[in-house]
Amino acid sequence: MTTSNEAPRLYPALRYKNAAKMIDWLGEAFGFSVRARYGEGDVVHHAELVFGSSMIMLGSARDDDYGKMVGEPGSGGGKSIYVAVDDADAAYAKAKKAGATIIQELTNRDYGSREFICRDPEGSVWSFGTYWPKAGDKG
Q1: pLDDT score recorded for residue 123
Q2: 3-state helix, strand, coil in the chain (%, to 5)
Q3: From CA 94, how far away is CA 88, in angstroms rounded?
Q4: What three-state secondary structure class fits 30?
């Protein structure tokens, strides 16, 4: 399945009330650098911040489908884990068979990833997809 030399496949994904400000703060306070940032003005649709060979994903809290799935920041919500997989259909079948609650069915994203979103038995949100960003690559 994996080798010890491959890039990480787990990405904490966070939503912030003021993502633009938090990007600056995370860089200043913790040393993250911006690999990619998409959005308009103060609204961050998606950003990827790098720390060594690791990465987090974040965006502005929004009242969209994903925002409803992960909840509001500051209330225990606004967090999820994204897992890069080689075969999203196989991961979907395995998760569903194990009893994961599918909250977004398999879908093909406009950025080329095939993904689904589910909850584990205690309610944490997990996203699985074929998009696999690597800290050393240009975003």
Answers
A1: 83
A2: 20, 40, 40
A3: 10
A4: helix
Q: What is the pLDDT of residue 1?
A: 57
**Helix, strand, or coil (residue 27):** helix
Q: Model confidence over 47-69: pLDDT tens digits?
A: 999 988 889 999 999 999 989 98
Q: Are strands 114-119 and 125-129 parallel, antiparallel or unpaired?
A: antiparallel
Q: Could you give the CA distance from residue 127 to residue 66 in angstroms, rounded to a whole number?
A: 10
How far apart CA 69 and CA 63 sit, in angstroms, is 10
Q: Which amino acid is at 125?
A: V
Which residue do the tokens 């809290």 mark? 61
Spatial CA neighbour of 67 closest among 44, 84, 51: 44
